[in-house]
Amino acid sequence: MPFEALGLSKPLITAVHAKGYITPTPIQTEVIPPALRGLDIMASAQTGTGKTAGFTLPLLQRLNEKARAKSTHALALVLTPTRELAAQVHQSVLDYGKLLKLRSAVVFGGVNIGPQIRQLSHGAEIVVATPGRLLDLYQQKAINLSQIEILVLDEADRMLDMGFIHDIKKILNLLPKKRQNLLFSATFSNEIRTLAKGLLHNPVEISVAARNSTVTAIEQVVHCVEQPHKAQLLSHLIREGAWQQALVFSRTKHGANKLVKLLALDNIHAAALHGNKSQSQRTKALQDFKNGAVKILVATDIAARGLDIEQLPQIVNFDLPNVPEDYVHRIGRTGRAGATGHAISFVSMEETRLLRDIERLIKQTIKREKVEGFQPKTQPIAPAKPLVTKNNSLKPARNSPRPSGSRPPHSYNSKRNTGNRTEKGS
Ligand code: AMP
Predict the structure, then answer these.
(1) Ligand 1 centroid, distance to 48 Cα (angstroms)
(2) Which tens digit of pLDDT belongs to each residue from 127-138?
(3) What is the DSSP letter of 317?
(4) What is the C-alpha separation between 156 and 402, in angstroms, rounded?
């Protein structure tokens, strides 16, 4: 089905085509028509499904038919959990709305509030915001929410995970009762359903990927490795596979910093992205990664939420996440919009239980793959018993290490391979 069939106006279709998109993704096909009719929507969709265009396009079209926002007012409010996601959503608003005369603003914390106050003073039809900064601006009377007609909650589950529920409730109380609401969430926990109940009126429910299922376009593999050898293994895979870009997940901020330093010793340029970095450092790390100046981005779960990095080929779980659902979120950063991605997990004996929890959640056994020179001395980690291997046909990851018998892996300076290279702490 082409974009034209969804009821979008010419300028929007032209802007979408200019981005190189020919056909809508499933979430766009499902969300755009009812959203254009002004209905409330509750959509289950992860990052990588094209959800941003799914709500941005109808938002732009509906606002284009309405009056302009008065000074300090806004007509549509998009709430996101993180600064990065706010910036990305705003970029989509600018890209898709480039042929319309709508005004938009993005506001988030960690940067000077002055320019945001000045921008809002003229009024903006669309405001994209993180909850905390929006409330700051409201208290300073820099934004008036009484003209809001459309509210979008993007990555609502993340907002709740990050403790924004009180801020969200405060914001909801400041909005006019009659409005259109669009709620997007990767998962629908009971907490999200409670929030949705008080927020949405007869919503159209849309789901494009089964809850907690992983996308088939992602090839997943586990390397069993002793914790102190993980950094060395990563370095080896990057070199042997000539990786151009990979997002690496670390459980802790301290671990992320440490890994960046270890990779630097091996002349691999990496950057860390986590909550202790200033906004300018975070923006720079992301920019450098996107333009290729930095090959490896080492991030914690919170910092990586909602990152839009197109067609990321490689995800590495340097540490397994404590919460199995985070595994699904993490690997959702690869294999996006039709491209195949690879998700590699480094699993130490201490993480056996976490791996089993993940396999139970995704109802899939992840293929174990040996890397010569890095096998742990202990027995390899067997899959959880009740699982049936659904994915026997998994091919080895592209750029995956050479098979055993070929050249030995270590280009890494073995003097640096001391036993204290664990990534715990922080
Ligand atoms: P999102 O889930 O909104 O973060 O989007 C994931 C990625 O898919 C982004 O890089 C978009 O630019 C891209 N994308 C969005 N819509 C389409 C489409 N219809 N066809 C191809 N790529 C798309």
Answers:
(1) 6
(2) 999 999 999 999
(3) E
(4) 42
